[in-house]
Amino acid sequence: MQEPFWLVEFSSESDAKLLTSRSVSLRKCLELWGHEKSIDLLHSTVRGKSGSFAAYFEPSKSFKIEVETVGRHFTQQEKVAKLEAFDYLPIRGPVKLKDPDVCLQYIEFYGTRTVNIPTTPYEVFFGRNVASGLRQLLKKLSLKTRKFIGNTSMDPQLSLLMANQAQVNSGSIILDPFVGSGSLLVAAAEFGGYVFGSDIDYLMLHGKTKPTRIKQQKRAKDESIKANMKQYNLGHKYID
């Protein structure tokens, strides 16, 4: 059975944050406080360890607890009941739903199959959210809202993965010799690189090809790679 999580050991929290700071496939990284095969066992484990995490329960630290179920749907009311089951935690700080000092996460994993879903989870997890990946970039760089796209525009996630493979960093100089509509340039510039490109297709390079969006009759005069860079406030990274 495929599992959408990894158990990884880091030498420090800063190492975990460093990894997630460039990951576009990773959603979040948790400091694991409990991992069991049943809900009751998890609560027993977390209850026994709660004293070790007293520093996160200080009155000065705001908090929230998120409940996530993978492979099975629950109503909001059912999720609230799961959250309230952690009422034994000695949390003394105020609740803050946006940008709290401490975000705790409870996860129930019911597998990845869409049929014969079990009534109880295969595994349950509880821990502190240490860092999140860069999934928000997928929405920010979505082709649906990009100014200039073509038939070969690359999916943002693939573009960002390729930029990571190229180890693009602040100050890198990136040339895409088959630039097309510039998807790879956008991703590389997002990671701090200075970018430029070339292409055998003159019309594509200058935004003169037929539009690829449904119902769009003709391209706008300002559709271009440069317009894309300006759209994402990356114009200063474009070597034109």
Automatic annotation (TrEMBL):
A GO CC term assigned to this protein in UniProt: cytoplasm
InterPro entries the record matches: RlmKL-like_Mtase, SAM-dependent_MTases_sf, TRMT11_N
Which Pfam family name is an example for this entry? UPF0020
Instruction: Kindly indicate where the leader peptide sits in this chain.
Output: none
Which GO molecular function annotation, any one, does this entry have? methyltransferase activity
Keyword terms, alphabetized: Methyltransferase, Transferase
* Record domain tRNA (guanine(10)-N(2))-methyltransferase TRMT11 N-terminal: where: 2-135
* Domain Ribosomal RNA large subunit methyltransferase K/L-like methyltransferase residue range list: 145-196
Instruction: Give yes or no: UniProt keyword Methyltransferase.
Output: yes
Q: Which GO terms describe its biological process?
A: methylation
* Annotated PANTHER family: RNA METHYLASE-RELATED, TRNA (GUANINE(10)-N2)-METHYLTRANSFERASE HOMOLOG
Q: What is this protein called?
A: Uncharacterized protein
Organism, per UniProt?
Answer: Dendroctonus ponderosae (Mountain pine beetle)
